[in-house]
Design brief:
With 346 residues, the chain is α+β, with helices and mostly antiparallel strands. The chain folds into two domains: 116 residues, PAS domain (Beta-Lactamase), CATH 3.30.450.20; 207 residues, Histidine kinase-like ATPase, C-terminal domain (Heat Shock Protein 90, 2-Layer Sandwich), CATH 3.30.565. The protein is 43% helix and 24% strand. The strands form three sheets. Strands 2-1-5-4-3 form a five-stranded antiparallel β-sheet, sandwiched between helices. It has a five-stranded mixed β-sheet with strand order 7-9-10-12-11, with helices on one face.
Length: 346
């Protein structure tokens, strides 16, 4: 009576691994401890154009035309085989006669219970198309960023040209009121041009408010203050980054407040000082323009609000802020205050 020897655990494990590889629709290799091929899935053979008669027993480094002979991959697989490392997702470029491919490799060490050796189960994913699409997307984003920066430069240059034309027109007018309107329009355009210059060096529209408002104050002072020994303009801005939209709104508010102070706070060549201050407190912030001029009129009703007051009011409302006007003794203090949202308690 003959008997059939029982299958060992290593035989069962090997047969299971071979069955999995045979049924796999993805490129898979089973390697021994010397990194020789024990079995390969049909998908691996077809994907990498390797004949079935040249697989079993061949070292992985000798597959195909030698394109798998990559020292870094070889070292990682060896380390994985001896339990010194793991390859959860190793990316590599495979240069073959049919072209270059981007691959993601995952290696798992299989240990048989009877100590007869180790096996490596190596799955391979071709991610060439995904990486190409990602690269194309990155290229489009980069090209878009270049176009946006070029557009910002052109807008800033165009605004400066328009502002220069307006300033030239001021000299040809005989009416003081008309000249004032053109000067006001000039400063409003310059404030928008200033933020465009800042945007060209900003990350995705974030604007350094200190640089922007400091440049804006300098521009307004240079064009509207004739005697800087008589009237000074200074700015103190904290280290804040804001969106380009908020920067434009704040710049227009500052422009209106500074123009108003320069025009009305120091009549008859009165000397004085104008200060700009911006401070953020968490999600809230306060912008203040203060002068030490003649102060508020005794009867506020005689001060007819103009275009600038309407612009400030509309912009403050857009920013979710309120306008607070107080007597600075001497002078006037105008604050644009945006309070942080209230804390919700349960």
């Amino acid at each position: 009576m003959s008997t059939t020897p029982l299958a060992t655990s290593s035989d069962i494990a090997l047969n299971l691994a071979l069955s999995l590889i045979s049924a796999s629709v993805a490129p898979v290799l089973l390697l021994d401890g010397d990194l020789s091929v024990v079995a390969a899935s049909q998908s691996f053979l077809e994907t990498f154009d390797i004949g079935t008669d040249r697989v079993a027993g061949v070292k992985m480094a000798d597959l195909g035309g030698g394109e798998w002979n990559t020292p870094s991959l070889w070292a990682l697989l060896k380390a994985t085989a001896y339990g010194q490392a793991a390859i959860p997702a190793y990316e590599m470029d495979l240069a073959s006669p049919s072209g270059s491919r981007r691959l993601v490799l995952n290696a798992q060490r299989l240990v048989y219970g009877d100590g007869q050796g180790v096996r490596l189960l190596l799955s391979i994913q071709d991610v060439t198309e995904q990486r190409d699409r990602a690269q194309q997307k990155d290229d489009l984003i980069r090209d878009k960023a270049v176009l946006i920066e070029e557009m910002r430069h052109r807008i800033a240059n165009s605004l400066q040209i328009i502002a220069s034309i307006l300033l030239q027109g001021v000299r040809k007018l005989s009416s003081d009121e008309s000249r004032d309107y053109l000067r006001d329009a000039h400063q409003r355009i310059m404030s928008v041009a200033a933020v465009q210059r800042q945007l060209s060096g900003a990350e995705l529209g974030d604007v350094d408010l200190r640089d922007y408002l400091t440049d804006l104050c300098r521009s307004i002072g240079d064009s509207m203050i004739r005697d800087h020994d008589r009237l000074t303009l200074s700015a103190t801005i904290d280290d804040t980054l804001v969106s380009s939209g908020k920067a434009v709104s704040l710049g227009l508010i500052v422009t209106e407040l500074l123009i108003n102070a320069i025009k009305h706070a120091f009549p008859k060549q009165r000397p004085g000082r104008i200060t700009l201050d911006y401070r953020s407190q968490g999600e809230g912030w306060t912008l203040t323009v203060r002068d030490d001029g003649v102060g508020l009129p005794p009867d506020p009703s005689i001060a007819k609000p103009g275009l600038g007051a309407g612009i400030i009011r509309a912009l403050a409302q857009q920013l979710g802020a309120v306008i607070v006007i107080t007597d600075a003794e001497p002078g006037v203090r105008v604050s644009i205050v945006c309070a942080p949202p209230p804390l919700h308690t349960s």
